[in-house]
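Regression check, glutathione case 184:
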Amino acid sequence: MRRPPECDERRGAAGLTGLPDDPAAAGMAEQGSAARPLPLRFWQDGVARLPGSIPNVQRQLMTRAILDETHVHSAIRETIADYHADIVREVQAAVAANDVVVVGMKQNPFPKRARKALDAAGLPYQYLEYGSYFKGWHPRLALKMWTGWPTLPMVFVKGVLIGGADDLRRLIRSGELARMQARK
Ligand SMILES: N[C@@H](CCC(=O)N[C@@H](CS)C(=O)NCC(=O)O)C(=O)O
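Current build output:
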């Protein structure tokens, strides 16, 4: 079976912020076509933070634009808030109850890859599946709007979104996943 075009790995989502191959990790952020330096400092854990922030406090720079509620008409705010809110709550509950959660979908090879990596590392996880390439687009969109992560799988470790399959494998390889898990 031919893989859907969005499944081309070269079009995959960017890696975890703070990793060496991420432009943000080099202290740059894309703005339009020009790269603009950001006042970031890099701590031993490889995470970029604004100067003055304390390493063990999760105050990481996010440049994601979110439309402010004051710029959303009051008549549609509830529609936005309620958009597949049951699915979002379901994932939130799983993330609260399990150290590792993989949110995936049928057919997509990346959730399979994430699960295989966790199985190989002997790490237990909760798996939730929403639809396939042919169905379940709307609930997945709600999860994407909630997390800001544009693809599946979404992998959570100790309540933290760590990205997709590639990011997970990187964290397993570097030993960071084990360190995250060891944290109380
Ligand atoms: N680099 C990502 C790639 C994941 C990816 O690109 N997933 C695509 C399908 S192959 C996806 O989620 N598409 C959105 C959707 O169908 O809802 C990873 O390692 O997880």
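Comparison notes: The longest helix spans residues 85-97. The pocket of glutathione is lined by residues 6-7, 12-13, 108, 110, 140, 151-153, 164-166 (CB under 6 Å). No diff flagged against the previous build.
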